[in-house]
């Protein structure tokens, strides 16, 4: 029997929402890691029982959690309690140290600070975990201050892919209001050597050699909040998405503007069209219709909530430009929530399910590609991320 | 045995209840105590002090015998009452947040 498992990260813990194939009956498990910020959790496409979670707090820093049974139990990889005094400790699953070796990391040890001076890279937290499409033990981690790490041992140890910070534009990257974070990681499903990442506020980048070398892919972006609106880097990209059948086509929700690329990011064009506002955070693509995309417009960068008190998902069936509001089942008055960048996802059932979480603690699901919506839960802590696993 | 009181979140992480007891070889300093704590409970590495620099995380403090030992050098000996196990060593989280 098919079903789905929705993985929800919130400001105060993680929740796992398990639904039947019709996505009508739900079981809620949690809070896991109660009281901690869970920026992201995601399952391995190669082994759906394998989950990874980024747990962090201002007091105790970063923790990586791993589950091998679909979220019933969790462990810190390599952090098992030692039984023998004097045994060498492992416990390096939360050790994210930037590469400063001469060949890769050096001399790129600073980036632009708010006052225009150069500032050292300082690890703060993991924003996004992207498991390999083929290997349950391999995971990429996007971190703040912006960098990309990878584990190949199930999260026990992490190594930076320093070619990203080191490709040349790093000193021009600067933090946005939310910090300087690498928040999006996309692996080309037809070519594991091709990886896309996005950084606020630097832009989008692509590697064609498995993460060793990188280049900015921001041509066509126009951002009035930076001195040179068409600069090579400096754009506040909020999210990018692709469809597995057509990985050269990318969709982007920028700070302002919804963008599209048909050449793997080499060039972008705006497809905001008739959206009521083109500010927002999330963007995602229908599981079976590569030209059907979803965004949640947010009023502005000064007012981070939906416009007019109405929570509306907008869907385009034409790859952008022409958009329709999806409102059935969503509050259409007195609603002032935000939907953060990692808080929308789609399943691969038929018809395609769409899910998103709000800063008001609701997780909404649509089992008909967005035509109608219903809340799975209404009163969680503020939702930071939503992912879904389609279970056989 | 040295007695250590961890803040609730770290007790959960280490899967312990109440105080932790540790055998700390040699002179009992904060550094030696944390070395022994992290050797016994590797999941706590990086949560009290930085992996590389061993700097205390800013929102944590160290108390014992009604004294704030936070700013003592890490290799300074801890009070005899801590070394003898008569008094616990407290790892305390700042009161803040929402």
- The class by helix and strand makeup of chain A works out as mainly beta
What's the SSE pattern of chain B?
EHEHEEHE
Strand content of chain B: 15-25%
Helicity range of chain A: under 10%
- Total strands of chain A: the figure is 29
Compressed to H and E, one letter per element, the order of chain A equals EEEEEEEEEEEEEEEEEEEEEEEEEEEEE
CATH architecture of chain B: Roll
Describe the structure.
The complex is a heterodimer of chains A (392) and B (98). Chain A has strands spanning 3-10, 13-20, 26-32, 37-43, 51-57, 61-67, 110-112, 118-120, 125-131, 139-144, 147-151, 159-160, 181-187, 195-200, 203-207, 215-216, 237-242, 250-254, 258-261, 269-270, 279-285, 293-298, 313-316, 324-326, 344-346, 354-357, 363-366, 374-377, 383-391. By secondary structure, chain A is mostly beta strands. Chain A has a domain at 1-35 and 236-392: Methylamine Dehydrogenase, Chain H (7 Propeller). In chain A, the strands form eight sheets. Chain A has a four-stranded antiparallel sheet with strand order 3-2-1-29, with no helix packed on it. Chain A is globular. Chain B has 98 residues and is α+β, with helices and mostly antiparallel strands. Chain B has one domain (2-93): Beta-grasp domain (Ubiquitin-like (UB roll)). Helix content of chain B is 22%, strand content 19%. Chain B has helices at residues 8-14, 30-40, 80-83; strands at residues 2-5, 20-22, 60-64, 67-68, 89-93. In chain B, strands 2-1-5-3-4 form a five-stranded mixed sheet, covered by helices on one side. In chain B, strand 3 and strand 4 (67-68) form a beta hairpin. Chain B is globular. The model of chain B has no long low-confidence stretch (mean pLDDT 94).
